[in-house]
Amino acid sequence: MSRRLLSAWFGGERDILAATRATREAGYQILDVYTPYAVHGLDNAAGLRPSRLPWVCFALGLTGAVAKLWYQIWTSATSWALNVGGKPFKSVPAFVPVTFEMMVLFAAVGTVVAFFIVSGLRPGRKPRHVYDRTTNDLFALVLVQHDAGFDIAAVRDLLSRHNLVRLEERIEVPEVKTAPGSFLLKPALGWGLTGALVIVVALTYLLPRTFTEPNSEFLPGMVESVPYDPLSANTNFADGMTLRTPPSGTIARGHMPWDSSRAGTEASLVAAYVSTLSPDQLSDREARAASVFATFCQPCHGPAGKGDGTIPARGYPAPPSLDATNALKLTDGQIFNILTYGRGNMPSLAGRIPVNERWLAVQHVRRIQEIATAAATVATPPAGGTAPLNGKENPR
Amino acid sequence: MAERYSILRRPLIAGNKSFDEVTRDVCAPLESKSTSAWWMTFAAALAMLSVGAVAVGYQLKTGIGTWGLNNTVGWAFDITNFVFWIGIGHAGTLISAILFLFNQKWRTSVNRSAEAMTLFAVMCAGIFPIIHMGRPWLAFWVIPYPNMRGPLWVNFRSPLVWDVFAISTYFIVSLVFWYVGLIPDLATIRDRATSKIKRAITGFFSFGWDGSNKTWLRYETIYLLLAGLATPLVVSVHTIVSWDFATSVIPGWHTTILPPYFVAGAVFSGFAMVLTLMLIVRKVLHFEDYITLHHIGAMSKIIIATGGIVALAYATEFFVAIYSGNDYERFTFVNRALGPYAWAYWIMVGCNVGVPQFLWSKKVRSNVALVFAISLLINVGMWFERFVIITISLTRDYLPASWADYSPTSVEIATLVGSFGLFLTLFLLFARFLPMIAIGEVKGVLGYGKQTEGGQR
Question: What torsion do the CA atoms of B51, B52, B56, B62 make, to the nearest 10 degrees?
Fold first, then answer.
């Protein structure tokens, strides 16, 4: 339904106040007054009642305060009561500051939201009555021509006594075109969604729950897997097993093969191991080897492998020197084997030194032997000197 | 229409402006191209912000060992900055809320920028406690939400939790307050906009404001309500900040005077910052008719008053220390004034007690350059006040064996610089894209001091 509107523009505060009062007293229906700023007294002139928003503010402030006070008491005294410095669980004085803050927050934000709702203000809303200059410097009084007896000439007479700037008649046709996305603002949708939410929340609490049983799963595919269990029977394969035999020559991760028939000589095994090291590790290899030796071998064998470590010093049978003739004859693999399985009083170190580092230890033993042999060669003149063969003088 | 001016009240806005002139003057900076001065300042602000961003990134990656803190001094630079920025913010709320309740109409020229200053200052303040946590990605743990750890709740008896609620409430309420005030002006800009994009954007954010009297009536109502809520809020926020210290047992912190002392100091420093900013804005954006010497004088008087309260608080602290007969309390205050950080103490006293006294003279209050210099010095002094209270008290705690000195690292200083960068960047963007003066409110006081009433011309 369309209605006929009459808009009158004025240039000043006093004029709009007087004109508004006069038209209202003459019995015309005022749709609204549009002003560039809050004109005090205009509500009186237009016959508006004071806003009821303070009540909203009061109710929301009270709600915020009560809810927060309850929440603090519930969390601190009921849900998980923690003893903080021996203070009472319901330490209400300590709850005052936060209660106050929440009261202010609820009251302030809630009042503003209420203001937006009752005034119909929302992001993107188009101004209902566009009179451009009413946000700048003019004041517009908009009257509704509610009956046939509306006499424009009389109104014009009345208004022109108050420095009327302009008078304009408009026919307001209700907008039929709906803005895109306006369906989102339909009350039914809002109520429907709210109702659904209420039902879901209610069901969450009302449905019986058994805590001793696992929860029912939504889309359980991730847990109950579609693939075959590795050890289950399988008719798809000739051997009737799900688990496939790995291709020949497969090596398990982190496992060094110890099969001389396939891997070749011990030296090539060491080389194979070394080839797996990164350049950084390679540069650290000697240091690492020394460190492994110092940690696991030196306590018995001593720093130079003479069998003079701290443990023999306390009475444990001393091991033979690592540069003894027998020891020099051992191959790398044999030393590795001794490290792995132990020999005589020496226990197995397989559980303590990983395979790679056992090879490093072997390498360090070899280095000790080299140094000792070199020292012995230097110290022993070809003519047959007096230097002791057991090399008690440390070459370093 | 012949106009006569009151002999008691001078108009708040100089230049006998019409409504349209007010709109044009305030919108002028928004509708012209950015000046080279703006670009240069903006570049400088961004540079400071990046220094801070790098510093924050570095300290997050490396850890809080990058600060100069030690076992004894666990709170120093960052908490000083936090309290400093929070205090700066308080003047905005004071102008928008408390002066509104007291019907001080001159506030209309400065309240918009002062409220924006509040928002930006609270943002800067919020950064510091969050990075101080050391693991800021867990900052949400300060919020009591239902969790899988029990649920384990926050300790509602701790002032640090009160702080979380106070500051987030303060930020939200200040934001809402500021935005509500901005809506009518956004509508004004919308109706002036020549480009379609600008019209669409301001149209979206102005919520369809059309200047309806019914809406203005409700607007005025909620403005009063918000002012009434924000007034105790602003007092509570700095009171709670002061409780962070006052509820502990460090000599120098553990005093009942701290809440009023902090609130007065916050207003004092905030007004100094408002003056600093307003004097620049006035000059650069040519708002001399809106921010007149009368405004500067009024703010200077508030500074004298709050500065007096602060000076009284300094004296009271010393008196109580002497009068208490408590050796430890006495030592704390003698150490402040004569100890290794005496220089900081005397900068504080000089800037906060000495310098504002010049404002008693009307000649000084009318000299914009001098007022600007004084406002800068007060900002410095108030920063040192927080440093003195927080750091000096900590460096000399209970046992002489655990005494330790503190000096900030470059990372901490860069973070402070960064917070100034953030503040200036946001303020410059605000000055460029939003009206710095509340157009609607200024129009309402155009008739102040004239024979005709209200905004009637």
Answer: 40
Report the residue of chain B nearest A12, measured CA to CA.
B456
Query: In chain A, what residues touch B177 (CB-CB under 8 Å)?
Result: 108
CA distance B90 to chain A (A): 16
- The tokens for A390 are 């057991």
Residue A90 forms contact with B (CB below 8 Å): no
> How far apart are the C-alpha atoms of A392 and A307, rounded to whole Å?
11
Among candidates A11, A72, A101 on the partner chain, residue whose Cβ is nearest the Cβ of B169: A101
Which SS3 state, helix, strand or coil, does residue A165 take? strand
| Count of other CB atoms within 10 angstroms of residue A263 | 13
For the entire predicted model, the pTM comes to 0.72
Chain A contact set for B243 (CB, 8 A)? 97
| Strand ranges across the sheet with A29-34 | A29-34, A139-144, A3-10, A164-172
Interfacial A residues in 253-272 facing B (CB < 8 Å): none
Query: What value of ipTM does the predicted structure carry?
Result: 0.89
The pLDDT tens digits for B100-151 are 888 888 888 888 888 899 999 999 999 999 998 888 888 888 888 888 887 8
Three-state secondary-structure class, residue B61: helix
Query: B165–A91: do the CB atoms touch at under 8 Å?
Result: no
Q: Which of residues 20-39 of A touch B (CB under 8 A)?
A: 32-39
The C-alpha angle B183, B186, B187, rounded to 5 degrees, equals: 90
**What angle separates helix B258-284 from helix B293-324, to the nearest 10 degrees?**
160
d(CA A218, CA A196) in angstroms, rounded, equals 20
3-class state of residue B428 by DSSP? helix
